[in-house]
């Protein structure tokens, strides 16, 4: 492993080709435990989300449940708007909710997750935010809060809307976030079928029927970007998440997602880079009693690396420096970035491992002279 200076991308990392090929046009796959990027292909391209937007709808609902603004046995009324836009007459996915009826939140969640119910999405949106437009704003705001800077939502169900876009990168991290933050609700994604209004519908996720350890999460389709899926598989103590789009048919979506997820479980092994408390490197300090400060992570750092090409691992510490004294122990300083081949696979926050107090007047003067000379050289 090489600790390279900030701003330098190692040449051998630039030359590494992908280890797997897929017909999907946009892909992102990560290891659930460490967040290691196992595979990436045009993953930051903005595309219409279709029903994958319902993952964000559920995040907003799950967050409201977690903070106590909502309870599972709360009931929301089915408005004429929800029945008209999302019911059977609309021609899309529906839970066949009866207009003017009231449905408990838990059943609405099952309808949205298992049956991909557009009417269920609208009922939840109106119940939580008054209007679907207000709810869509909540979705986008919440996306920003959990680290999704690009995705924009215009409605709760992903039906075509101008300006509504997501990336596979952000969707796969949303999926992992839901799994990490809401384990008591993530289980809904593995339900095989759900009955509402005396109509039983199977889960639309084809991975659940393959007996490969899949337990989530969502499928989607638009004419503009083709067939898409966000899936997760757990097996042998490992879990991977993948988001894929741009496939040509339901059959291709099922086959390509199965192959990618199974490869993700087979082709990598967990490697520990640093133990808890290990000094990973240091950062330059200006005006301090010491000229540098040691850096460490918040815990152990592990990464999943391919069983082949294990020598393609390259790491570097990135921070804005020099830091200005005093620097207190525990202060966030930068990140450790790790590449596997040409893919930037993992980022881990780094913190000051010690306190560096303000230096003496002489030390600060020498640092100032040194910085001035560097400035002239620049």
Automatic annotation (TrEMBL):
The lineage of its organism: Bacteria, Pseudomonadati, Pseudomonadota, Alphaproteobacteria, Hyphomicrobiales. Keywords: Carboxypeptidase, Cell shape, Cell wall biogenesis/degradation, Hydrolase, Peptidoglycan synthesis, Protease, Signal. Belongs to the peptidase S11 family. SUPFAM superfamilies: beta-lactamase/transpeptidase-like (SSF56601), Penicillin-binding protein associated domain (SSF69189). It catalyses: Preferential cleavage: (Ac)2-L-Lys-D-Ala-|-D-Ala. Also transpeptidation of peptidyl-alanyl moieties that are N-acyl substituents of D-alanine. PANTHER family: D-ALANYL-D-ALANINE CARBOXYPEPTIDASE, TRAFFICKING PROTEIN PARTICLE COMPLEX SUBUNIT 12. Pathway: Cell wall biogenesis; peptidoglycan biosynthesis. Residues 268-358 form the Peptidase S11 D-Ala-D-Ala carboxypeptidase A C-terminal domain. This is serine-type D-Ala-D-Ala carboxypeptidase. The keyword Protease applies. Its EC number is 3.4.16.4. InterPro entries: Beta-lactam/transpept-like, Peniciliin-bd_prot_C_sf, Peptidase_S11, Peptidase_S11_C, Peptidase_S11_C_sf, Peptidase_S11_N. Removes C-terminal D-alanyl residues from sugar-peptide cell wall precursors. It comes from the Bacteria. GO terms for molecular function: carboxypeptidase activity.
